[in-house]
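Input record, target 12 of the design panel.
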Protein backbone atom coordinates (compact mmCIF):
# COMPACT_ATOMS: atom_id res chain seq x y z
CA UNK A 1 0.00 0.00 0.00
CA UNK A 2 2.71 2.49 0.99
CA UNK A 3 4.67 1.57 -2.13
CA UNK A 4 1.67 2.38 -4.34
CA UNK A 5 1.25 5.78 -2.67
CA UNK A 6 4.90 6.59 -3.33
CA UNK A 7 4.53 5.67 -7.00
CA UNK A 8 1.40 7.81 -7.24
CA UNK A 9 2.97 10.99 -5.93
CA UNK A 10 6.00 10.59 -8.18
CA UNK A 11 3.88 10.19 -11.29
CA UNK A 12 1.24 12.74 -10.28
CA UNK A 13 3.34 15.88 -10.04
CA UNK A 14 6.60 17.19 -11.45
CA UNK A 15 7.07 19.52 -8.47
CA UNK A 16 7.51 16.62 -6.05
CA UNK A 17 5.35 17.93 -3.22
CA UNK A 18 4.90 16.15 0.05
CA UNK A 19 2.60 13.14 0.09
CA UNK A 20 0.64 15.10 2.71
CA UNK A 21 -0.28 17.60 -0.03
CA UNK A 22 -1.66 14.83 -2.21
CA UNK A 23 -3.81 12.79 0.18
CA UNK A 24 -6.28 14.67 2.38
CA UNK A 25 -9.11 13.66 4.68
CA UNK A 26 -12.45 15.41 4.36
CA UNK A 27 -16.12 15.10 3.54
CA UNK A 28 -17.69 14.49 0.13
CA UNK A 29 -19.03 14.87 -2.40
CA UNK A 30 -16.33 17.15 -3.89
CA UNK A 31 -12.79 18.06 -2.87
CA UNK A 32 -13.07 21.44 -4.58
CA UNK A 33 -16.70 22.28 -3.80
CA UNK A 34 -17.10 20.68 -0.36
CA UNK A 35 -13.78 19.93 1.29
CA UNK A 36 -12.02 23.13 0.18
CA UNK A 37 -14.81 25.47 1.34
CA UNK A 38 -15.10 23.55 4.62
CA UNK A 39 -11.37 23.91 5.31
CA UNK A 40 -11.50 27.61 4.37
CA UNK A 41 -14.44 28.18 6.70
CA UNK A 42 -12.56 26.54 9.57
CA UNK A 43 -9.46 28.65 8.94
CA UNK A 44 -11.47 31.89 8.85
CA UNK A 45 -13.38 30.93 11.97
CA UNK A 46 -10.16 30.06 13.81
CA UNK A 47 -8.75 33.47 12.88
CA UNK A 48 -11.90 35.25 14.11
CA UNK A 49 -13.09 33.20 17.10
CA UNK A 50 -14.80 36.07 18.94
CA UNK A 51 -16.94 37.21 16.01
CA UNK A 52 -20.51 35.96 16.06
CA UNK A 53 -21.72 36.80 12.57
CA UNK A 54 -20.20 35.92 9.20
CA UNK A 55 -21.03 35.97 5.51
CA UNK A 56 -19.58 33.88 2.71
CA UNK A 57 -19.99 34.87 -0.95
CA UNK A 58 -19.56 32.05 -3.45
CA UNK A 59 -18.40 32.96 -6.95
CA UNK A 60 -18.14 31.20 -10.30
CA UNK A 61 -18.44 27.44 -10.26
CA UNK A 62 -19.06 27.38 -6.51
CA UNK A 63 -22.21 29.43 -6.99
CA UNK A 64 -23.29 27.64 -10.19
CA UNK A 65 -23.04 24.09 -8.84
CA UNK A 66 -22.56 24.63 -5.11
CA UNK A 67 -26.03 23.53 -4.02
CA UNK A 68 -25.70 20.25 -5.84
CA UNK A 69 -22.28 19.71 -4.27
CA UNK A 70 -23.52 20.73 -0.79
CA UNK A 71 -21.08 23.65 -0.57
CA UNK A 72 -23.46 25.63 1.63
CA UNK A 73 -24.04 22.66 3.93
CA UNK A 74 -20.30 22.14 4.35
CA UNK A 75 -19.76 25.79 5.31
CA UNK A 76 -22.80 25.92 7.58
CA UNK A 77 -21.64 22.80 9.40
CA UNK A 78 -18.38 24.52 10.39
CA UNK A 79 -19.95 27.74 11.69
CA UNK A 80 -23.03 26.21 13.28
CA UNK A 81 -20.86 23.79 15.24
CA UNK A 82 -19.54 26.83 17.13
CA UNK A 83 -23.00 28.48 17.31
CA UNK A 84 -22.02 31.18 14.81
CA UNK A 85 -24.39 32.91 12.39
CA UNK A 86 -23.41 32.68 8.74
CA UNK A 87 -25.11 33.95 5.60
CA UNK A 88 -24.34 32.28 2.27
CA UNK A 89 -24.48 34.62 -0.74
CA UNK A 90 -24.65 33.10 -4.21
CA UNK A 91 -22.97 35.40 -6.75
CA UNK A 92 -23.75 33.80 -10.11
CA UNK A 93 -22.32 36.65 -12.20
CA UNK A 94 -18.81 37.21 -10.84
CA UNK A 95 -16.05 34.87 -12.00
CA UNK A 96 -12.56 35.74 -10.81
CA UNK A 97 -9.79 35.49 -13.36
CA UNK A 98 -7.47 33.66 -11.00
CA UNK A 99 -9.80 30.66 -10.50
CA UNK A 100 -13.54 29.96 -10.89
CA UNK A 101 -13.90 28.60 -7.34
CA UNK A 102 -13.68 31.87 -5.44
CA UNK A 103 -15.00 32.55 -1.92
CA UNK A 104 -15.15 35.83 0.00
CA UNK A 105 -15.40 35.43 3.77
CA UNK A 106 -16.43 38.38 5.92
CA UNK A 107 -16.45 38.76 9.70
CA UNK A 108 -19.19 41.17 10.84
CA UNK A 109 -19.60 42.86 14.24
CA UNK A 110 -22.78 43.73 16.14
CA UNK A 111 -23.00 47.08 14.28
CA UNK A 112 -23.08 45.26 10.94
CA UNK A 113 -19.56 46.50 10.19
CA UNK A 114 -17.07 44.32 8.35
CA UNK A 115 -14.11 43.64 10.63
CA UNK A 116 -12.05 41.69 8.14
CA UNK A 117 -12.49 39.76 4.91
CA UNK A 118 -10.64 37.06 3.03
CA UNK A 119 -10.77 36.16 -0.66
CA UNK A 120 -9.65 32.58 -1.18
CA UNK A 121 -9.89 30.00 -3.96
CA UNK A 122 -10.63 26.29 -3.69
CA UNK A 123 -8.40 24.86 -6.42
CA UNK A 124 -9.03 21.12 -6.05
CA UNK A 125 -7.97 18.26 -3.84
CA UNK A 126 -8.89 20.28 -0.76
CA UNK A 127 -6.17 22.83 -1.58
CA UNK A 128 -6.67 26.56 -1.03
CA UNK A 129 -4.85 29.46 -2.68
CA UNK A 130 -5.05 33.21 -2.26
CA UNK A 131 -3.02 34.12 -5.32
CA UNK A 132 -0.13 32.91 -7.45
CA UNK A 133 1.68 30.38 -5.33
CA UNK A 134 4.51 28.00 -6.11
CA UNK A 135 4.16 24.63 -4.40
CA UNK A 136 7.00 23.79 -2.06
CA UNK A 137 9.28 21.11 -3.45
CA UNK A 138 9.99 18.48 -0.79
CA UNK A 139 11.93 16.06 -2.95
CA UNK A 140 15.23 16.71 -4.69
CA UNK A 141 14.26 14.96 -7.93
CA UNK A 142 11.30 15.48 -10.25
CA UNK A 143 11.05 12.39 -12.46
CA UNK A 144 11.16 8.65 -12.00
CA UNK A 145 14.37 8.18 -13.99
CA UNK A 146 16.41 10.46 -11.73
CA UNK A 147 14.81 8.98 -8.61
CA UNK A 148 15.67 5.41 -9.59
CA UNK A 149 19.21 6.42 -10.51
CA UNK A 150 19.63 8.10 -7.13
CA UNK A 151 18.21 5.09 -5.27
CA UNK A 152 20.54 2.75 -7.15
CA UNK A 153 23.54 4.93 -6.36
CA UNK A 154 22.64 5.13 -2.64
CA UNK A 155 21.34 1.59 -2.32
CA UNK A 156 17.90 2.87 -1.27
CA UNK A 157 14.53 1.21 -1.62
CA UNK A 158 11.79 3.55 -2.80
CA UNK A 159 10.26 3.77 0.70
CA UNK A 160 13.66 4.72 2.13
CA UNK A 161 13.87 7.52 -0.43
CA UNK A 162 10.52 8.84 0.74
CA UNK A 163 11.50 8.62 4.41
CA UNK A 164 14.72 10.53 3.69
CA UNK A 165 12.79 13.57 2.43
CA UNK A 166 9.50 13.30 4.32
CA UNK A 167 10.88 12.16 7.66
CA UNK A 168 9.82 9.19 9.74
CA UNK A 169 6.51 10.87 10.65
CA UNK A 170 5.19 10.26 7.13
CA UNK A 171 4.33 6.68 8.07
CA UNK A 172 2.02 7.76 10.90
CA UNK A 173 0.29 10.10 8.45
CA UNK A 174 -0.15 7.34 5.88
CA UNK A 175 -1.48 4.98 8.53
CA UNK A 176 -4.11 7.59 9.39
CA UNK A 177 -4.98 7.93 5.69
CA UNK A 178 -5.25 4.15 5.37
CA UNK A 179 -7.59 3.86 8.35
CA UNK A 180 -9.96 6.47 6.91
CA UNK A 181 -9.91 4.64 3.56
CA UNK A 182 -10.83 1.35 5.22
CA UNK A 183 -13.53 3.02 7.34
CA UNK A 184 -15.10 4.62 4.26
CA UNK A 185 -15.35 1.20 2.63
CA UNK A 186 -16.99 -0.30 5.72
CA UNK A 187 -19.40 2.62 6.03
CA UNK A 188 -20.32 2.28 2.39
CA UNK A 189 -21.07 -1.40 2.92
CA UNK A 190 -23.12 -0.82 6.06
CA UNK A 191 -25.20 2.11 4.84
CA UNK A 192 -28.17 1.32 2.67
CA UNK A 193 -31.12 3.30 1.35
CA UNK A 194 -31.16 6.24 -1.07
CA UNK A 195 -28.38 8.73 -1.81
CA UNK A 196 -29.00 12.47 -1.31
CA UNK A 197 -30.34 14.38 -4.30
CA UNK A 198 -33.38 14.54 -6.53
CA UNK A 199 -32.49 11.41 -8.52
CA UNK A 200 -33.27 9.10 -5.58
CA UNK A 201 -30.47 6.72 -6.48
CA UNK A 202 -30.36 3.60 -4.33
CA UNK A 203 -27.12 2.51 -2.67
CA UNK A 204 -25.84 -0.71 -4.25
CA UNK A 205 -22.44 -1.41 -2.68
CA UNK A 206 -23.82 -3.77 -0.05
CA UNK A 207 -25.71 -5.93 -2.58
CA UNK A 208 -22.69 -6.10 -4.91
CA UNK A 209 -20.53 -7.12 -1.96
CA UNK A 210 -22.87 -10.02 -1.15
CA UNK A 211 -22.79 -11.14 -4.79
CA UNK A 212 -18.99 -10.95 -4.77
CA UNK A 213 -18.75 -13.16 -1.68
CA UNK A 214 -20.85 -15.80 -3.40
CA UNK A 215 -18.63 -15.89 -6.49
CA UNK A 216 -15.26 -17.62 -6.85
CA UNK A 217 -11.87 -17.38 -8.55
CA UNK A 218 -10.72 -14.22 -10.30
CA UNK A 219 -14.33 -13.08 -10.66
CA UNK A 220 -14.62 -12.94 -6.88
CA UNK A 221 -11.59 -10.64 -6.57
CA UNK A 222 -12.76 -8.35 -9.36
CA UNK A 223 -16.25 -8.17 -7.88
CA UNK A 224 -14.90 -7.39 -4.40
CA UNK A 225 -12.76 -4.55 -5.74
CA UNK A 226 -15.77 -3.18 -7.59
CA UNK A 227 -17.94 -3.31 -4.47
CA UNK A 228 -15.22 -1.55 -2.43
CA UNK A 229 -14.91 1.21 -5.03
CA UNK A 230 -18.67 1.59 -5.18
CA UNK A 231 -18.88 1.78 -1.38
CA UNK A 232 -16.42 4.69 -1.25
CA UNK A 233 -18.12 6.40 -4.19
CA UNK A 234 -21.48 6.22 -2.42
CA UNK A 235 -20.01 7.49 0.85
CA UNK A 236 -18.53 10.40 -1.05
CA UNK A 237 -21.85 11.15 -2.74
CA UNK A 238 -23.59 11.04 0.64
CA UNK A 239 -21.16 13.56 2.16
CA UNK A 240 -19.30 10.96 4.19
CA UNK A 241 -15.72 11.10 5.41
CA UNK A 242 -13.25 10.03 2.74
CA UNK A 243 -9.70 10.44 1.48
CA UNK A 244 -9.38 12.62 -1.58
CA UNK A 245 -6.60 13.44 -4.03
CA UNK A 246 -6.31 15.94 -6.91
CA UNK A 247 -7.69 14.69 -10.22
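The sequence produced for target 12 reads:
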Amino acid sequence: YFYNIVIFIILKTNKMQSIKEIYKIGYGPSSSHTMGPSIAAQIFLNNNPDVHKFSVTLFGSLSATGKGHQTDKAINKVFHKKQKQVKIIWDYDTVHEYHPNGMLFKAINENEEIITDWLVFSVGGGDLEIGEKEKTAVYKHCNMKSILEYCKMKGFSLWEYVEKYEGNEIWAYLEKIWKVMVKSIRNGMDNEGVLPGSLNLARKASSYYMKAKNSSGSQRNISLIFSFALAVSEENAAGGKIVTAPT
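Confidence is low (pLDDT under 50) at residues 5-13.
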